[in-house]
Amino acid sequence: MTTSTAMRVIHGTNRLTGLAAYRREFVAPAAGVRCVAVVLSSPPDRSASLLPVLAGLGVTAIDRFFDGEAHRIVAALRPELAILVCDPTQPDGVEMIRAIASSGAGRLLVVDTGGSVAGTIAALELGADATLSGGDDAAIVRATLTSLLRRVHSLHQPTPPPTEPQQQRVGALTIDQDTCEARHDGELVPLTRTEFQILGYLAARAGKVQSPGKIMSAIHEYTYTDVEAQQAVKVYIRRIRRKLADCSSESVEIVNSRSFGYRLQATSATELIEEPAA
Predict the structure, then answer these.
(1) Which domains does the chain have, with CATH numbers?
(2) String of b and e for 79-113 (b: at least 16 CB within 10 Å)?
(3) What is the DSSP secondary structure assignment for residue 189, as one 8-state letter?
(4) Which of 82, 118, 139, 211 is placed for a possible disulfide with 261 were both Cys, Cβ 3.0 to 4.6 Å?
(5) Rounded CA gap, 150 and 125, in Å?
C-alpha cells in the first residue's frame, strides 16, 4: 500500500520578522506535542529527504536555504528544532552553525554533507546537540529525530520545584540559575545552554565525581549509552575548559577522574559557597 504526504508551498511575508520568504510545509496529523522544525541547507535543496520523515513524526517543517536573514527568522520563531544541512568543516558551514546555535532554537541537529568524523566533531564543538551524516540510513535519521523530539517534549513538562540552590559558587565562579549566567570574578563566561547546564550540574556537586552518563541524563532527561555519553561530555568539557581559560579563570578547574568521570573543584583555598535564592 502506498501512502502520500500532503505538501503546501507558502509565499508571503513572515509576520514575526517582516521578511519576504517562502516555505514548503508538509502537513501531517500532530501526535503529542505539536512541534515546529526549521530546516536550513547550504547549498540549497539538500534537505528534501528530511521533510517526509519530519511529517511522519507530526512535525511542521519550514524549509529554506541559509542566507543572511536565516538567523533573524529562527530567532523570531524560536522553533523546537533547527536542522542544518551543511559541511561543518567548511567556512560556510561553520558560519551557519555558529549563527543558528545562538538563535534560541530548542535543539540543534546538524546533517553533515561531508560525512566525516572531523565534521561530526566540529559540529558538536560549535554547539550541535546531535549530528547525522548525509548518507545515513532512513531508519537512523528517524531514530535520531525521535530522540531529539523526545527531549523537546520534556521541555513542555511541568518544572518541579527546585531542590538545589539557585546560585552556586565555586572559587570565584558563580553559577546563577535564575539569570542562566556563569560569571568568573564578575566577568560573563559565554556558554551555550548545554554547556551552562553541565557546568551548573557539576557546580551543584562540586568536589564530587560525576559520570558522563549521569551528567547527560540529568540535563537532557534521556538515557544515553556509555559510549554516547562519554563522547558528548568529552566535547562539552573541552569547550567549557577553553571558555573558562579565556576568562583567565584560575580559581576553579574541571578534573578528569579516569574511568569514573569529572568533578569541578576550587583550586585555591576558597571553599564551595552555596547561596540560596532570596
Answers:
(1) 6-155 (3.40.50.2300), 167-274 (1.10.10.10)
(2) bbbbbbbbbbbeeebbebbebbbebebbbbbbbbb
(3) P
(4) 211
(5) 22
Here the cell at position 261 is 568521570
Tens digits of pLDDT across the chain (278 residues): 333 333 343 444 444 444 444 444 433 333 444 578 888 887 766 777 788 888 888 888 888 888 878 888 888 888 888 999 999 999 999 999 998 988 878 889 999 988 899 999 999 999 999 999 877 788 888 898 888 888 776 655 555 555 556 788 898 899 998 888 999 888 899 999 999 999 999 999 999 999 999 998 888 877 778 888 899 999 999 999 999 888 876 778 999 988 899 999 988 544 444 444 43
DSSP 129: S
Determine the 3-state secondary structure of 223 from DSSP: coil
Calculate the alpha carbon distances from 211 to 137, 220, 272, 276 in Å.
31, 14, 20, 26
List the grid coordinates of 84: 542544518
What phi and psi values does residue 203 have, to the nearest 5 degrees? -65, -40
Residue with cell 569529572: 262
Using CA atoms, how far apart are residues 164 and 166, in angstroms rounded to an integer? Answer: 6
Number of residues assigned to the chain: 278
